[in-house]
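Hi everyone,

Forwarding the result from last night's run.
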Amino acid sequence: MEYDMAALSLRERDFIDASLASWTGISTRAPIPVRALGYSNRDHFDDEVDRLRRTISAGEKLSEVDTARVLFLSELAFGSDLFGAGVEFRLVSSFSDAEGIAVLRTLQRKLYTHSGARSLFNPELYAPRDD
């Protein structure tokens, strides 16, 4: 399954771009997304972030796992002081907190899929289930 980034509004794409840009700027020291997403090193992660930004900017399609990556990175960038830009997000974007959370909630409704979320992380990151 793919998601057509052209279906997003310009403001939604701007929010994602600012979120992804923060990972090569204000959030560069955060270890969580690099390891959690299975990248071998920071350079590989940075290359992938650049690729995602270009794809979204061009309004092209993303795979389900890439769409989940974009959503995860946007959520962390906007919402987390520990791992992302957090309260400093307004310094790296034109979004107020109120507009940012409204746009993020819209993106969550549009981009989230259960299968995308399951495919995003390495299986060993999930807690064992007592089935």
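Strands lie at 2-4, 61-63.

Cheers,
N.
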